[in-house]
Fold each of these.
Amino acid sequence: MIRLVAIFVCLSLCAAGNAPAGGLPDAPGGIGPADVFVLAGREGTEASLEARDMVRLIAAGYDAGEVLESLRIMHPLDGAVFPADLAPPLVSWVDGHPRADMWLVSIRLADSRAVYALCRERSFVPSEEIWRMVRAATRERQAVITVHGVDSGTFQVVSQDCVSVSTSRDRVGALIMYRQLPPVFSFAEKRLDLVGGRLGDPASPDPPKVLFQGVPACVGCHSFSRDGRVLGMDFDNAGDKGGYVLSGVRRDMGLGKDDLISWNGFPRIDDRQTTGLYARVSPDGRRVVATVNEIMLLIKTDDPFASQLFYPLRGILAVYDRKDATFTPLAGADDPGLTQTCPEFSPDGLRVVFARTGANMERVRELGGKTVFALPDASLDELNAAYPVRFDICRAPLGKGRNVRAEPLPGASDNGMSNYNPRFSPDGKWIVFTKSRLGLVLQPDSRLCIVPAAGGVPREMACNLGNMNSWHGFSPNGRWLLFVSKETGADSRVWITHVDGRGRDTPPVLLHRLGEPGLAVNVPEFVPRAAGVMERITFPGQ
């Protein structure tokens, strides 16, 4: 993807006034005898002299007044904060200047050192050695990254853009498990061989592990216990849409009957199968909560940016207890006259927050019981208008008897918007939820909001990008939030933002190693490193 022509590390202590912020030295004299020059793939004195001469030519002709604004850095974003243990990140840009055919990336550090990379492609990933130096020098200090578009015929800088970044003292300290699949849902259904599960490490430059691939069934939505030793995951087992993996984590997970349960063990109210929609494992790994007795509306389109409208038209919450092997309705979230979904346990396991709306039984009757459609040419805006729904975040205690009423969460309910996918911070202080004008998932206008766990004034997060922000979750240490966005295209990708003790977050960082071209990423979850023992998951029938 990246062809690096030349890198050199400027080790001299240049005066800050020798160059514009993030720019180049304004004359060859700004490059001193202690500078080190490296040509990628070549070593020795000849390569060093060639790199030095190229940079001197560019620096000698640099004139900030002549530079046009045709270049835009796409990543990192201005103000982004990198994790202390992040592997070398991606620097990428677009440039519309017709003469720009070579690019010089400069990373100017607070201690007056700089890193420069001369590239022929519109992206750059620093080596691990260089990134360790940059990461240490930017620990809670800003660095300026500038990309200069260069006319290689004249060595003149013709375009440029710059951003400021820094590195946090906080580590991620966790892995990320996610599913990847074709972005168009109807196509993914036909090409299950392209659907797979991956386990990636933000701290490693290595590609993610392939946990499973091509399972001949719908599989992949997952969650873990707090210690990472219990995995729960949807699995349509032998035609049972309520099949669910509930298993201890181990190296080679060849799943058998002892690793599986079925949400159809919960009493049905009609002849429809239940799926255990949006199931979540409790922090201690003993329980799982999910939507059951649901009727789902699913309308499929061919738009890769929004290929389905999906939400339950009815449903209650049920809890499965591993110790007793029992299913029970969750009091306060078991009203058959309402739709209750998207549950989440509190960190102490004593409460559940969830999304709720009035059951759409009139719509069910209108649809004649058929709730799966294919409308290839329909837009999501048209579908939202035809099938409007808005959810509120509510909360209910766990195991407090039958006379329990769920309470709407102030700040995440009754706001004229649809609120869903609540996620607790590990310390229990905050809830991050998704908000959109209508709908439940895959809404292009969805935004992440944070609110005190007891309710209060919500705040839209700084990490929000332009197209879809959802499928989010906190790292085990509570300092990082991951989420999925289609900001870079229909092939949705995972981003990560720093969250401090006051709930304030930063512009996000793209985890560019998670995902493959042509495939979307969804349902990512932070996984404690204990789950890193997993090498392979094999399902019955494989």
Amino acid sequence: MDHVTGVVVGVDIGNSTTEVCVARIASDGSIDFFGSALTPTTGVKGTIKNSKGVVEAVCRSLRDARIPLSEVEAVLVNEATPVISGLAMETITETIITESTMIGHDPRTPSGCGLGMGVTTRVDDLDEVAVDAAVVVVVPAGRDFEDTAASIRAAQARGVDVQAAILCSDDAVLVTNRLLHSIPVVDEVSRIEAVPVGMLAAVEVAAPGRNIRTLSNAYGLATLFDLDPDETRMVSPVARALTGNRSAVVVRTPAGDVTDRSIPAGSLELIGEKKRITIDVGTGADAIMEAVNRVAPLSDAIGESGTNAGGMIANVRHSMAELSNQSTDDVHIRDLLAVDTTIPQEVRGGLAGEVALENAVALAAMVRTKDSGMQQVADAIQRNLTDVGGENLRVIIGGVEAEMATRGALTTPGTDKPLVVLDLGGGSTDAALIEMSGDITATHMAGAGDLVTKLISSELGIDNIEVAEEIKRCPLAKAESFYHIRLEDGTVQFFTKPLPTNTFARVVTLSESGLEPIATRHSLDKIRDVRRSAKHRVFVVNALRSLATVSPNRDLRQVGFVVLLGGCALDFEIPDMIADALAPYGIVCGTGNVRGTEGPRNAVASGLIAGHVESFRSEALTVPEAANA
């Protein structure tokens, strides 16, 4: 065992983080662990750019352990499989509105209550309106609210039937407070100049805490504007866009033109070892995953040219080919995860960024290349470590991360074989079963934390991916006053000092740095439901899928222990979700505690070191036998 003694470093290159542990191996093969380190992964997992983050993590861990780099005998890295995910939309109906045929709006400060309908009229033209004529007043930007209220009051006193008003500024409450009788007023219409004048319009404002009923109903629009069935079908996206709003405006111009344009989702050709299946993405995630299971194991997938699915698959191939310096013909899709979702699509022609939720299918794809790029990564790490003083060390590809993770997971107190490791990462869910005999079966499933973040971002219409990540990681609360918040579980927390003003009446995340307001109008319950649903559709589905793949005869009841590892195993609700899903099978499931000290982190890095020692033990046993033979 002399040739395996000394200091070794295990390195786990993940999608999001790079984990390192340092150990000294004694002459008898015992391992003494000294410390660990964690850094963000640089570049896409499995590419040369990883070397920068690896070197940083190795040097940091050695500093903490007070061991010079010159004493390191070997650096062991995992066989990292790159994973790239993307969104492929199902058939989307994009409503393009010209001549402002229909518009909808949902400002924060409407006023009045009820439904008003009349001909759109500029506030400056009210003096010319006939008595008893029903009008909707259009107020341009820069108009003082006192002047606006005075003009409407004068028209009402003269007998003009002022049904409602549309304002550019946020003066709705100030205007209605100065009228003879209340009317529904919608403000904050930034493109007020685009509102057609002389056309029939409807304005609806619901009472506080309620939503509009008529303008969000396609048949309500048909009744108000006397639409035929074809016209009703054409304007139904506008009604959907207004669903859940407290206020809305709809204007109809006979000269307007509404056209529908279908954006095809396309089809996927799934290529297995024994059969091929072509499936339309528009059939939904369940049908796609059923097809993936029928062709399993998946060898490759091809998207229909000129469609969303084809573009997504082509982009994945092209990106991986560039990163690995290989031909796109050598890049293959090894796994797909399809998830049903919704995406806010802007209603073209609206005046205030109106959106309609459209069905979509999110696809996460796992990529493999003809030749592994890990040797290039290992060579780059060795060059960079040599430059900073590691002249005598070797960088060795120690093994597949799922297999190494089982060795690390078995150091969790209370575990035993047969054991399954679920490594919940950023891009993939990896599973490995170690049986009583020591045999290991591993699988890699596309889709994990990154896909959950994308689902939250798309379904809540949040453009900032960092905010979506914060929603995924943190519990929610509603700041109900300057001194208390109501948590998502219904409990109340009080504060002795006033909360920041930007959190008042807002949904916030309870992050490590404090209360972070979320820039969205969605309620706390809506955000929580989207977050939990996204986690369930990705992590719970992938957990069951991967366990069925590695379990003997696909029977989950033959699995004794499941240990959750990876960054997502630290999530405040994912472990409980998976444990609940596995409870009917009698499986002991929980978050790992590697070496009894590291929690769900460092399993692969620790396993690489343990596997390194075992490989030399095996060689020591087999070489003498071969000599005797």
Amino acid sequence: MNPVLKAHASRKGGGKPVAALAAGFAMLAASVLAVPHGFADTAPTNPNDPKTPVTVSADALPTVQIDGVVWSQTIIGNTVYAVGKFSTARPAGAAPGSQTVPRQNILAYSLTTGALISSFAPTLNAQGLTITTSPDKTRLYVGGDFTSVSGQIRNRVVALNPTTGAVLSGFAPKVNGSVRAVVASEDTVWVGGLFTTVGTVARNRLAAFRSPDGFMLAWNPNASGGRVNALTASPDYKRVVAGGAFTTLNGSSNPGYGLAATDAVSGSIIATPVNDVVRNAGDGAAITSLSTDGTNWYGTAYDFAGTGLLEGSFSANWSNLGLKWLEDCHGDSYSIFASNTAAYVAGHPHYCGNLGGFPETNPRTWHRAVAFSKAATRTLTADTQGYKSFTGQPAPELLTWFPDMDTGTATGQNQGPWHVTGNSQYILMGGEFKTVNFKGQQGLVRYAVSSLAPNKEGPRSSLDATNPVLSSPAKGQIKVRWQSNWDRDNSNLTYQVYRDGVVVNTQAKATTFWNRPTLEYVDTVASGSAHSYRIGVKDPFGNAKSSTTVSLTAK
């Protein structure tokens, strides 16, 4: 069972029934097409425009696979560490059950090749839920449900040597319940989860330890009413932000309703203005993740039973802990990572109409990997689908990055990616998905910037969808009309009109899968002459498609 979303194990979408959401579809679709869009991708026209930052490619790079679910990943140099609930690993391209090697809930692989690292093979006797590093990258900290690591007693949190996987002596807190979040400075390790004691001392879902020897520190915020799912720390490690389903922190509900910052030493609560807007807690809502890029911090949220407000993600400032932007792309969001150019989200959004993105559809469709600008570039419009409306709040730009990721069966929750992380060159996703871009790739996948990617994701629409429609509106004229195409990671596509095999017109158009306007060209020819036409389309990397050929005789 997913540690974050235990309250809605069978959940597939956001909080409103499909029928209710579909009622305003036609009106929403029309309004979406009328909204100007930034159309950023792997090759934007102006990468310096805050609306159009460069994204990674949507190409799924070969990556080691697992037979269950990955909950969390972290990077040290060229090594990626992943934890979850799985028992075997196998190479990219290998079918389930073939070429497997044992890996018990933790593994490491190469960031640049995706291949399993055979020399790193510790074992966890139950699932790992979170993994992070010390700032100097000499330690790995893992939290979860385990009570034994490589045969040594470790109660739900452990420190490992990142090279050998050996359990580091001395650090052995006795936590009595699940650890779901860990963040570390050079000398302190803060943890959050579902526990109520450490050893014999009461600690209600939050605790801190001295990193060398695991000695428990005085930091003791009291999270009541629900679990802690996430932690992040300010760049100077003076503040620690907690997120989860708790309804109060140190007795306060604002801040403290699912989200609040604390003093990293005393544990006292700090004013957190973002909690005025982002309020998700209780039995059916929570903050699901927190992360930081060193300048800003980010979070994701879900709401199912109406005890929360936001389905989507947000960015906040470290300077004043206030809101920078918010996106309410329903449904749930589970994890967010901000690279140096864009913010990537794992979840299952199905409606981004309030910020000019894709509309609700019937039957519903989900887009489990999406990306946003790091800058606030617009404001949210009034919600038309019956959700909480964040009208007028600052919002980012939805970017053209739409890899296809399916759902898996490992957790029984019908989800795909649960976690995203990366660096300036790679974006990594982990979860329970079984395919990426309709090819087998289970549990782990890498995406890279265009200079490191094959850049083979091109125009997607079928030939029939882009075939030209010909008419002759006047003597000596043939009008050529066709529907524009779309691409998973490039919005700016170039179209060429071929008459009798020769290009007679070239035009560019920015499109997305939900916004594919009809294009046209009026050709001047001899009256009574017959001609054949076809349409070619290509992306900035030369990936091309061509329609079939259609003929007509001009008036």
